Amino acid sequence: GAGVSQSPSNKVTEKGKDVELRCDPISGHTALYWYRQRLGQGLEFLIYFQGNSAPDKSGLPSDRFSAERTGESVSTLTIQRTQQEDSAVYLCASSLPTGWGRNTEAFFGQGTRLTVV
Amino acid sequence: GQNIDQPTEMTATEGAIVQINCTYQTSGFNGLFWYQQHAGEAPTFLSYNVLDGLEEKGRFSSFLSRSKGYSYLLLKELQMKDSASYLCAVRDTSQGGKLIFGQGTELSVKP
Questions:
Q1: Looking at the complex, does the CB of residue A90 fall below 8 Å from at least one CB of chain B?
Q2: Contact present, A85 and A68 (Cβ < 8 Å)
């Protein structure tokens, strides 16, 4: 597609429910990133995919969070048993394969605003 | 470990020049990025540095010193629309090339 697409744009869920957030990266972008941004805060790294594998899962806050990617394309971030502290904007970004000296800027989607009530 | 530091907020006057500093410590390094984020919007790319020195792009310039783990973003001829959060990010090669962001600097431009 023309840009990174995320869905839904807004999600309100009850505490304890599971949610699934979707990211469609730019075609040909093998690198994909998920971040969490709480109100007035910076971008908190969650997970990074190179192709379909995740070299670094260190940012996932707890075992309630998981992510997968298939076909070097769509990625889903799943949050199980949501808690109120999970309320935030979840941003997805994608980039071309990283390599020394290459300007592989990350392009961001508009994010999913998650509210847990 | 990884650590990226930038001032939390800055204020400047329309038409002036402002410099936003960023220091970083990462296990690996493959480039430093600056992004702009307006309230309620996604971050957008401003600049990229991988070698030491200054990169200029219109009213915006970015500088990098790898030996000092230091970068700055220079904004000239400030406009009201430049009021935004400015995010410094480093690509860390130690674990495959993830992109780590600082907390952002909230810039307010006053008339």
A1: no
A2: no
Chain B residues with CB-CB distance to A35 below 8 A: 101
| Interchain CB distance below 8 Å, A103 and B48 | yes
Q: Is the dihedral of CA A23, A28, A34, A38 positive or negative?
A: negative
B45-56 pLDDT, tens digit each: 999 999 999 999
Strand, helix or coil for residue A71: coil
C-alpha distances (whole Å) from B100 to each of B6, B17, B58, B80, B91 are 13, 27, 26, 28, 6
Cross-chain CB nearest to A48 (options B33, B98, B102): B98
Interchain CB contact of B52 with A (< 8 Å)? no
- Among left, alpha and beta (phi > 0; psi -120 to 50; other), residue A100 is beta
Per-residue pLDDT of chain A (117 residues; tens, 9 = 90+): 589 999 999 999 999 999 999 999 999 999 999 999 998 889 999 999 989 999 888 899 999 999 999 988 999 999 999 999 999 999 999 998 776 666 788 999 999 999 999
A48 with B101: Cβ contact below 8 A = no
